[in-house]
Amino acid sequence: MRILITNDDGINAPGLEVLGEIAAELAGPDGEVWTVAPAFEQSGVAHCISYSHPTMVARLGERRFAAEGSPADCVLAAISDILKDNRPDLVLSGVNRGNNAGENVMYSGTIGGAMEAALQGLPAIALSQYLGPKTADLEDPFEASRQHGAAVIRSLLDHGDWESDADFRLFYNVNFPPVPAADVQGLRVTPQGRRRGSSFGVVPYTAPNGRRFMWVSGGSQQASAAENSDVTANLSGYVSVTPMRADLTCHNSLERLGDALNGAIASFRQPMNSDAG
């Protein structure tokens, strides 16, 4: 198996090292693991691509490359250039330092890398390590993902929906709970949730020269969410697996809104009565 790994924390991030170990175990002695990751941290860039400027790609070693761009850029560089004649069988993005559950999904470069791979027709999985009080004192905060990552991915390869004939191919979002590996309770397939009363914001700052800046701040990652959500599963000690696709359509609203608005343009074009002489 030929596996491509990327992330959004950067080429030197410890989570990428963990992912390399997981990928090597999955690929086996006859497989290949290729790394194409951002040269610098790209957290929060979501599915951004460097459309308006060129991206430098540097070879750092055998099957190891760094790109001055986003995770989606890295996937594009891999499949369109570095591995264009031998596309990967699987793309893994992570292991992110911090969770990509709940509303974090919408901002995540880790998710963006997996999404781009899926849009290119490749099987893809995003992996993230939830952090919290129970991981703060661990010698290895990635302990849960390091020990359970390969088994979770094997289960997805065996039982996931990997058909590529749909317009938007599925990819998978995996979050490992903020507990030691021995305390992981199991695995749950969950929808994406949203933490109640927790959101991103800004902290304003005035520099000594009088210029105004801001720091983006995140909300509490321990806040509660819906009972069946990825957030709740993780905070209860479970690995969460969420099937996703790059389709933001609210399908539940299509029929109702269509019934209400279909034909509206025609009515706009009807001439208005006027009493003007």
From TrEMBL:
Which branch of life, at top level? Bacteria
What EC class does the entry list? Answer: hydrolase
Pinpoint the Survival protein SurE-like phosphatase/nucleotidase domain residues: 3-196
**Which cell locations does it reside in?**
Cytoplasm
- Catalytic function, reaction form: a ribonucleoside 5'-phosphate + H2O = a ribonucleoside + phosphate
**Where do the annotations place a divalent metal cation binding?**
8-9, 43, 96
**UniProt xrefs under Pfam families:** SurE
Which cofactors, if any, are listed as required?
a divalent metal cation
EC number(s) for this protein? 3.1.3.5
User: Which family would the database say this protein is a member of?
Assistant: Belongs to the SurE nucleotidase family.
This protein is called what?
Answer: 5'-nucleotidase SurE
Q: What is the lineage of its organism?
A: Bacteria, Pseudomonadati, Pseudomonadota, Alphaproteobacteria, Rhodobacterales
